[in-house]
Design a protein that fits this description.
Number of strands of chain A: 10
Helix content of chain B: 40-55%
Strand content of chain B: 5-15%
Mean pLDDT of chain A: 94
Low-confidence stretches of chain B: none
Radius of gyration of chain B: 24 Å
Strand order of the largest sheet of chain B: 10-9-13-11-12
Structural class of chain B: alpha/beta
Oligomer: heterotrimer
Largest sheet of chain B: 5 strands, mixed
Number of domains of chain A: 2
Mean pLDDT of chain B: 94
CATH topology of the largest domain in chain A: Alpha-Beta Plaits
Distance between the termini of chain B: 63 Å
Number of strands of chain B: 13
CATH architecture of the largest domain in chain A: 2-Layer Sandwich
Low-confidence stretches of chain A: none
Number of helices of chain A: 6
Radius of gyration of chain A: 19 Å
Largest sheet of chain A: 5 strands, mixed
Number of helices of chain B: 23
Structural class of chain A: alpha+beta
Shape of chain A: globular
Largest interface: A-B, 35 and 35 residues
CATH topology of the largest domain in chain B: Rossmann fold
Chains: A alpha+beta (237), B alpha/beta (546), C alpha/beta (177)
């Protein structure tokens, strides 16, 4: 083999696949049409491994690894859809639905929401955990966008796209644990923050937490797919 | 600085001490200080002056049995006095050279008899603000020996030979870690000391940093030489101001004596240490979060691999060890790896410092050889449960650990045995509970701690611990159903297996271990709406707001 | 074969699920061959019958009255179906949860009242502090999310329930559908 050590062969869900050295399990799985659910991961942004939905099992190890970060090695055997993983994924989704006030029927992202779609894919018909019903603010001070913390799942895509792609680092996370919140600047109103109004954060937000003013429901699909292209063009320059 | 100069300093201290006829060591550690040790020391100084006797009155670090404080240790006979106050100063000074003061003497022979002091060998004997005191007790000899006689690989070999395992909790073999960092390639490497001790009821690292700071510095410098690092950081929580000030003094003194800085001991080895303060986040004790915090970022953990040994501080190879691990290094270098490996049990070598707290007679710091029976710690060293109550359980490993019940007291204290019992060694906190403790309430307390201290990055820990807390609150106030218990167990499994870092992965342990050993208490709360220990009141309104 | 006894119940919801149920149109006649509607806002019966085979419950549990009803319904029904998002998740009625019932009552009966502002204390049932989905009070056998579930969803689900056939709810509907 001419590529020597740079090409790895492995097995994902009984399917033999090949990969370049350094590729993540998620990349390889997607190249081969194997779906692994994710929420915090987005192609074009750094991976944080925070949502834990993409956890997979590796043969020979009891530890579950995040597919968005774990890289491939020769002859590894990956299972992406075992009963154990399905159970954890359902529980994680339930935790998200119960954590804040996700009222799908009146959400701007109803029908375009990654959380909602994942819940259906994972066969969720109800939330067994008690709803926490926190009292959270909505910041509509920005002339073009609104942040509704009731819908935020703290995936930090907005934080990363703002810092890594736009280079503005307006978004960040405040607080600890269950009291975490995404904030603009040092917890100033979005409208009076140093926001460059590029709108990338809105496009990458998987739920209805960040949205364009004046667009609701079925009119508000989001287009996060511009990121890999943007990165490619930047590298080409 | 070389070995001869070190010996001269030690000799100087001995000569100075020889001017005095008697020595009185006063424990100035937090527990004793809060009960008037400072006033006691002043009174002793005055009484000594008035009597005309030549008495050296020394401020020292923790002597151990805090519940008996303020403590002092008198002259060369090692007489320990307990519950001393300023009013006793005169009679103590008068008794010097004669019979000890009977009413202050304590019978702690059994307490001390089963202990072996390695990490705490200097605590209670040296003034932590005097580098000379440390040097007089063989301090920095190990560092100079290493620099002048050993290769870095030789040092790693000796540590490996000692079979020392990380004292921060996880028990990773220290020699293996050092070897990995030593082999990692990089122009810059770092040594980091984790002094972000945060477990409720644990204060081993604080006592070491406050009572014997040079021991930590020496251990770090040796580590720096072994792995090829020039720079070290001590990460201390800001809630330990005394430790910070002692370490600052110690670093200054070490630099002044040429034991830190450029070309230490005339060798090409340079090493210096900076202190970094934590900002009150428990999660920063987790090594990847600690690294982020030192870098000036939000203290949240990152998935491993890559491990810090390969890519740590500013993406450079970084050796992170706990305070107590570094404190073990100098004695291992001085006495040899085999000496250390001779102590302890088969797979857990050496000694371990524990902070004994809760419903036990002798609370305080103890150091025991690993493998010792838990029963011996509780009943002999700890003096048993006071007030005619019966022992119920001991929580080891803090909020990441578990409760070990009375019927398991005969296990030996080792990494593996504690793990098998559903707990962990942890950093060394031991909280003893008696029949007045409700185990559901205890589990709820620890989950509340983990919920508050979760960084919020990953969902299982952030939202999972909060849901567990809600469910445990329901159980405690009698509004839970058996379905809630099933939900709780389901959550335990997801939080344990799916969380990003150790904090989340171990957060369910207190619930799992109490469910394993005290399930009947949960059932009593749920089915009969009764708290067997009488701790939980069942009168709260039915509606539980999350 | 005797017909199955079907009840439909309206707790704290907008009745949209019942409307969607009626949207089955001519398929209702087909359904009537298998079931008798023994209790419903759509029929006259005032008391919940002793024995019901399938109870479709719309709405969340928001008042002490709702709570009493759902417990009774559970006790007298072989199969309890949570019909629509309010019953399944709390949905729109639960949007008051973060601020509590007092603020809502004040707004409705004091601030916005044009005459005799006062919070009713008779006839109108007392509100619970927190609006919750029905499965937090009683065991639910089938969850049918959607706001409202479509007539198609109702038809497919009810056909399966009546015939005891297989039913993949997640393939039919979702929260907010």
């Amino acid at each position: 083999m001419s590529n020597g050590d740079d090409v790895k062969t492995l097995i994902i869900d009984d399917q033999e696949v090949s990969a370049r050295r350094g590729q993540t399990i998620l990349e390889v799985a997607r190249e081969n049409g194997i779906n692994i659910p994710t929420l915090c991961h987005l192609e074009g942004l750094s991976s944080v491994g925070a949502c834990r939905l993409c956890l997979v099992e590796i043969k020979g190890s009891n530890k579950l690894l995040p597919a968005c970060i774990a890289t491939v090695f020769e002859s590894m055997e990956v299972s992406t859809d075992t009963e154990r993983l399905r159970k954890h994924r359902r529980t994680i989704l339930e935790l998200l639905f119960a954590e804040r006030n996700h009222i799908c029927s009146v959400c701007v992202s109803n029908g375009h929401c990654e959380l909602q779609t994942l819940a259906q894919e994972q066969g969720l018909t109800h939330i067994r955990l008690p709803y926490r019903n926190p009292n959270l603010p909505v910041d509509a001070s920005h002339e073009r966008f609104t942040v509704d913390h009731n819908r935020c799942i703290l995936c930090t895509r907005c934080v990363r796209v703002c810092a890594e792609i736009e280079g503005a680092h307006v978004w960040d996370v405040m607080g600890r644990g269950i009291n975490c919140m995404v904030i603009t600047d040092l917890h100033e109103e979005w409208g009076s923050s140093t926001c460059t109004r590029c709108g990338k954060c809105v496009q990458v937000c998987p739920t209805g937490a960040l949205f364009d003013k004046g667009k609701i429901g079925s009119e508000h699909p989001k287009y996060p797919d511009f990121l890999p292209y943007l990165n490619l063009m930047r590298e080409a320059r | 600085m070389n070995i001869e100069e070190l010996e001269q300093i030690a000799e100087g201290v001995r000569q100075e001490n020889a001017q005095y006829d008697y020595e009185v060591n006063v424990c100035m550690d937090l527990a004793c200080a809060s009960q008037g040790a400072d006033k006691l020391r002043e009174a002793l100084v005055q009484a000594a002056e008035a009597s005309g006797k030549k008495v050296l009155i020394r401020r020292t670090g923790c002597m151990g049995p805090c519940s008996h404080g303020p403590l002092i240790r008198v002259d060369h006979a090692d007489t320990l006095y307990r519950k001393v106050n300023a009013g006793h100063a005169e009679s103590i000074v008068n008794s010097l050279g004669g019979e000890p003061v009977p009413e202050l003497q304590c019978d702690l022979n059994e307490h001390f008899g089963s202990q072996v002091r390695v990490v705490l060998e200097n605590a209670g004997y040296i003034d932590p603000e005097k580098i000379e005191d440390y040097i007089a007790r063989d301090g920095y000899k190990a560092l100079l020996t290493v620099l002048t006689e050993m290769t870095p690989a030789g040092v790693v070999h000796r540590i490996t030979e000692s079979k020392l395992r990380g004292r921060g909790g996880a028990g990773y073999p220290t020699g293996l870690k050092w070897g990995t960092v030593a082999k990692a390639s990089g122009d810059m490497k770092y040594v980091v000391c984790n002094g972000d001790e945060g477990d409720p009821g644990a204060f081993m690292d604080r006592s070491v940093m406050e009572g014997d700071p040079h021991r930590v510095i020496e251990g770090m410098a040796i580590a720096g030489y072994a792995v090829g690092a020039k720079k070290g950081f001590i990460y201390v929580r800001a809630e330990y101001p005394v430790a910070v000030s002692r370490l600052t003094t110690a670093l200054r003194e070490a630099r002044r004596r040429g034991l830190l800085g450029n070309d230490i001991c005339g060798t090409p080895f340079s090493f210096d240490i900076e202190i970094r303060l934590g900002a009150g986040a428990f999660v920063c004790g987790e090594e990847t979060a600690l690294i982020a915090s030192i870098e000036g970022k939000r203290g949240t953990p990152k998935p491993r691999p890559p491990y810090p040994a390969v890519s740590g501080l500013w993406s450079k190879p970084t050796l992170i060890n706990n305070v107590e691990t570094f404190a073990n290094i100098a004695p291992i270098i001085r006495n040899g790896g085999k000496w250390f490996a001779n102590m302890g049990s088969e797979r857990s070598k050496g000694t371990k410092v524990f902070a004994l707290t809760g419903r036990i007679s002798n609370t305080g710091l103890i150091e025991v050889p690993l493998g010792i029976k838990l029963r011996k710690i509780i009943e002999v060293i700890g003096g048993g449960v006071p007030g005619g109550h019966t022992f119920k359980a001991v929580q080891t490993g803090g909020p990441s650990g578990g409760c070990i019940p009375a019927e398991m007291l005969d296990i030996g204290v080792s990494y593996d045995a504690l793990m098998a019992a559903g707990s962990i060694m942890g950093s060394g906190g031991m909280i003893v509970m008696d029949d007045t403790s409700c185990m559901v309430n205890v589990a709820r307390f620890f989950i509340e701690f983990c919920m508050t201290e979760s960084c919020g990055k990953c969902i299982p820990c952030r939202a999972g611990t909060a849901q567990m807390y809600t469910l445990l609150t329901r159980i405690c106030n009698g509004t839970a159903t058996m379905d809630d218990l099933e939900l709780l167990e389901n959550l335990c499994s997801t939080v344990k297996e799916a969380s990003l870092c150790g904090l989340g992965q171990t957060a369910p342990n207190p619930v799992l271990s109490t469910l394993k050993y005290f399930r009947n208490e949960y059932i009593e709360h749920i089915v009969n709406k009764r708290c067997p220990a009488g701790v939980c009141s069942m009168e709260t309104p039915v509606e539980v707001l999350a | 074969m005797s017909k199955l006894k079907l009840a439909t119940v309206w707790l704290d919801g907008c009745s949209g699920c019942h409307m969607s149920f009626l949207d089955m149109d001519e398929r209702l006649i087909e359904l009537a061959e298998f079931v008798d509607v023994v209790y419903s806002p759509l029929v006259d019966t005032k008391e919940f019958p002793d024995e019901v085979d399938i109870a479709l419950v719309e709405g969340a549990v928001a008042s002490v009255d709702d709570e009493k009803k759902i417990r009774k319904i559970r006790a007298h029904s072989k199969m309890l179906v949570a019909m629509g998002d309010c019953a399944v998740t709390g949905n729109v009625p639960s949007m008051r949860n973060p601020i509590g019932p007092e603020a809502i009552l004040d707004r409705a009966f004091i601030e916005n009242a044009t005459a005799q502002p006062q919070i009713p204390c008779v006839v109108v049932p007392k509100l619970l502090n927190v609006v919750r989905p029905i499965h937090e009070f009683v065991k639910v056998d089938v969850f049918l999310p959607g706001c409202p579930p479509s007539a198609e969803t109702f038809h497919t689900a009810l056909t399966a329930l009546v015939n005891g056939g297989p039913l993949d709810i997640a393939a039919l509907t979702r929260f907010g559908a």
